[in-house]
Design brief:
Blueprint (H helix, E strand, L loop, with lengths): L13 H19 L1 H13 L10 E8 L6 H20 L7 E8 L4 H14 L5 E3 L3 H14 L3 E3 L12 E3 L4 H16 L3 E7 L2 H17 L3 E8 L7 H10 L3 E5 L4 H11 L8 E4 L4 H7 L1 H4 L3 E4 L8 H14 L7 H20 L4 H9 L3 E2 L7 E3 L5 E2 L3 E5 L5 E6 L15
Parallel strand pairs: 1-2, 1-3, 3-4, 4-5, 6-7, 6-8, 8-9, 9-10
Antiparallel strand pairs: 10-14, 11-12, 12-13, 14-15
Length: about 425
């Protein structure tokens, strides 16, 4: 290596040399950028697993059916999750970072949900995903989330019998929704015989298995019929004849998505109406009522933890904000509200963990997260990843709204693996 001779070195005074060193130091600072460096260090501290987190932004995913038979049910959740994210961003984001959303359409097709979840986790490195509606879509993406250690916030009431490190369940599980509604039907309506009806996939079938065990083993009642129909079915004529033949005290229903429109129109056409027949559904919210129509559902009952008509200050603010964003005619159903809770629960857990890392966020969640401002009222997250919440029964009104007629006096502890029902 060639060395520069002493003759070529400028003759610097001590003062010149000191000034040169100072300028070099300042130049290094300006290149490195102390504020940027500090932020980079902070990002490294809150993101050690290569998630899509920068100094100013964190990327999350949304994975719902924007098209297909389930769009009637899932559109509200898409809207509510976006509303929560917008509100969080207006408050400064999460750990000082604004949330950016990548939206994917599961298109009411379970293999599509699985493929889209791979994209969000493997390609996009989303810090969290808010999504799914049906249990079939959740089951399709679950292996992907568990393999890639992603974090899913799932907003739908479901059959229980599941608990995953990688899922936070913001809807009701079976003991909170199914058992409460069956006990209400027996106690308040003296129902002893039940006809079970569902769409043909995992949630309705498992829910009705639980319902049957509760009716027969605990209530000592009788199931007089049980029928299932493919998603998207519109032909329920023969079913109406079976119902009329059996004359059940209660029709217990878990028909989902667009099929609800045809189902309740068929009931009315057959003369099976709310003034003559007790019917309790697990799957008609204000969202589905936009298609079903109040005139076809009036007098029937829904079992949910949330209805838009709830009279509390949290809900009034939520409904006002939702309508301000999506229009005065927008409606809010149970899953819509549960979807709204997802980003807020995630924000609370991230800030408690002081990290976006999934394992740390899950640990913070399991240590206890509560939402005092939830539209449904105060809720808290159990270590089993499900929410403590109240159960409610509401009657459908001719104007497509709901009137709450029963409410559990206390929050119901989630029990996804109830003894005697598996």
């Amino acid at each position: 290596m060639k060395h520069t001779s002493d003759d070529n070195v400028p003759n610097l005074s001590t003062a010149d040399f000191s000034r040169r060193r100072m300028l070099q130091a300042l130049g290094a600072v300006s290149v490195a950028g102390l504020p940027g460096l500090a932020s980079a260090q902070a990002t490294a501290q809150v993101n050690s697993t290569k998630l899509a987190v920068t100094d100013t932004e964190v990327i999350v995913g949304q994975l719902h059916s924007a098209t297909g038979t389930m769009a009637i049910s899932e559109t509200g959740a898409i809207q509510a999750e976006q509303l929560a994210i917008d509100q969080i961003n207006a408050m400064g984001g999460v750990l000082g970072r604004k949330i950016k959303v990548i939206k994917e359409d599961g298109a009411s097709d379970w293999p599509t949900f699985a493929e889209k979840s791979k994209k969000l986790l493997i390609n996009d490195h989303c810090a969290a995903v808010f999504g799914c509606w049906t249990s079939a879509s959740r089951k399709a993406v679950l292996p992907v989330f568990e393999k890639e250690n992603g974090l899913l916030y799932y907003p739908t009431f479901y059959e229980g019998l599941e608990q995953s490190h990688n899922v936070i369940y913001t809807g009701q599980e079976a003991t909170q929704q199914i058992l409460y509604s069956l006990d209400w039907a027996k106690t308040e309506k003296k129902a002893k015989t039940f006809f079970l009806i569902g769409s043909d996939y995992i949630w309705p079938r498992t829910s009705m298995k639980i319902a049957r065990k509760h009716i027969e083993n605990f209530q000592k009642g009788k199931v007089v019929g049980e029928e299932y129909y493919p998603l998207g079915s519109t032909n329920f004529g023969s079913l109406m004849n079976k119902i009329k033949l059996q004359k059940p005290d209660c029709i217990f229903v878990a028909v989902v998505g667009g099929s609800n429109v045809a189902f309740y129109k068929a009931l009315k056409a057959a003369g099976i109406t709310g003034d003559k027949q007790l019917l309790v559904t697990l799957a008609v919210t204000e969202d589905e009522m936009t298609g079903v129509g109040g005139e076809n559902f009036a007098g029937f009952y829904s079992s949910m933890k949330y209805f838009q008509s709830l009279d509390n200050e949290n809900n009034k603010k939520f409904v006002a904000a939702f309508k301000a964003k999506y229009g005065k005619d927008a409606v809010i159903g149970d899953v819509t509200q549960a979807g709204y809770l997802g980003p807020w629960l995630w924000k609370a857990a991230v800030e408690k963990a002081k990290s976006f890392d999934v394992n740390k966020v899950v640990a913070a969640s399991e240590a206890g997260i509560e939402l005092k401002t939830a539209p449904e009222g105060y809720v808290k997250l159990d270590p089993n990843h499900h929410l403590w919440s109240k159960s409610r029964i509401a009657m459908g009104m001719p104007d497509a709204t709901f009137k709450v007629v029963s409410e559990s006096p206390e929050l119901i502890k989630p029990d996804p693996f109830p003894k005697g029902y598996q």
